[in-house]
Amino acid sequence: MNLRVPSIQHDDCDELAALCKAGGDPLRLNVLRVLANDSFGVLELAQIFGMGQSGMSHHLKVLAQAELVATRREGNAIFYRRALPHTELLGGKLHAALLEEVDNLTLPADVQSRIGQVHGQRAAASQDFFSRVAEKFRAQQDLIAGLPQYRDSVVALLDKLGFGESATAIEVGPGDGAFLPELARRFMHVTALDNSPAMLELARQVCEREALGNVSLQLADALNGVSLTADCVVLNMVLHHFAAPADALRHMAVLLKPGGSLLVTELCSHNQSWAKEACGDLWLGFEQDDLARWATAAGLVPGESLYVGLRNGFQIQVRHFQRPAGDTHHR
Ligand SMILES: C[S@@+](CC[C@H](N)C(=O)[O-])C[C@H]1O[C@@H](n2cnc3c(N)ncnc32)[C@H](O)[C@@H]1O
Questions:
Q1: Residue 204, class by beta-carbon neighbours within 10 Å (0-12 exposed, 13-18 middle, 19+ buried)?
Q2: N or C: which end of the chain has fewer CB within 10 A?
Q3: How many domains, in total, are found in the chain?
């Protein structure tokens, strides 16, 4: 007699089981927590959790198979980030609930301090780049997207926002200072903040040449202890040099007065990894949704956006985010 057992469809169960299994481990939960607002390479995560690369690779593979993390290539490195839950799909609600619970976890102090070390290493790589390339900065920058390609869009957005006569501005990372004359014309006072003495010297020369009497230059790390505030903060092609861009937007929000505007010009996500070597970029552009999500998490409200397509295939996004006028809390 031929006894054939009917086959059971396990596929759906398998998917849910993979999700539960991936979430059923303290280390993996902490990895998800660490990835809340940042993305890291496998070596960085291994450093953050004080373990070997192969052990971390195994855990990331389990998380990736359960679609709890996604990968993105940045040059030669692969960066891991959280995958967004799709609540309409099988397991999506569980995924969303898991992330919500994970976000309430406090990371162990040693993990937090090692995240700081990784950010420090990224920042040092970026600063080292600008100290080496100051002289050929403009040529290097123009390889991808130079100020002439986004100047008009930023100016159009600035003019549309219609700042008052007494309004002030901060430009973070002015580079060689080429945008400062536009700001100086539109604001009563402008502060240019840069953490590279070599770049600030180039900006100083512009101020001198153009007799910009209302611009002050400040050598400072914009992410560390700046106590200024202004009606407008401009960040042109700087965010992709910051070690932790989501955190950086929180710092930028603190520089805004209530009702103030943050203007961010950035590359859209791209896959031209040579930009890391040639232009010192830590990130290969940004997804439009990520910028809006990070800005919202920083208490800002997304406003208008302009997009500029370039002949070399890159796309630039010029974004406006506003601090609500009623948000008068000291941050
Ligand atoms: C690619 S350049 C952008 C220059 C200019 N905004 C433009 O659009 O051409 C980035 C600038 O940000 C500065 N920078 C990077 N990290 C910084 C930080 N943490 N604080 C202040 N300036 C920073 C660099 O020194 C450099 O001048």
A1: middle
A2: N
A3: 2
Q: Find where tokens 């400040």 sit.
A: 218
Query: Is there a domain that residue 205 lies in?
Result: yes
> Which of ligand 1's atoms lies nearest the C-alpha of 130?
25
Output the pTM of the full model. Answer: 0.72
Instruction: Fill in the amino acid letter for 94.
Output: L
Beta strand 315-322 pairing with 301-309: antiparallel
DSSP letter for 241, please.
G
Residues 141 and 288 occupy one common structural domain: yes
Q: Tell me the CA–centroid distance for residue 29 and ligand 1, in Å.
A: 35
Tell me the two tokens of residue 327.
Answer: 């948000």
From the number of C-beta atoms within 10 Å of its C-beta (0-12, 13-18, 19+), residue 127 rates as middle
**What is the extent of the structural domain holding 218?**
136-322
What is the rounded distance in angstroms from the CA atom of residue 55 to the CA atom of residue 169? 48
| Residues forming beta bridges with residue 80, ordered by sequence position | 40, 71
Phi, psi of 81 (to 5 degrees): -140, 165
Side chain identity at 274, as an amino acid letter? W
Q: Report the DSSP pairing between strands 256-267 and 315-322.
A: antiparallel
How far is ligand 1, taken at its centre, from the CA of residue 241, in Å? 7
Rounded to the nearest angstrom, the gap between the alpha carbon of residue 288 and the centroid of all alpha carbons in its chain is 11
- Give the whole-angstrom CA distance, residue 123 versus residue 174: 17
6 Cα to the center of ligand 1, angstroms: 65
Identify the H or E element spanning 317.
strand 315-322
Q: What is the pLDDT of residues 54-69, one digit of tens each?
A: 999 999 999 999 999 9
Q: Which tens digits make up the pLDDT trace of 6-45?
A: 565 567 788 899 999 999 999 999 999 998 877 788 999 9
Place of tokens 């805004």: 256
* Residue (of 124, 129, 213, 218) closest to 173 by Cα position: 218
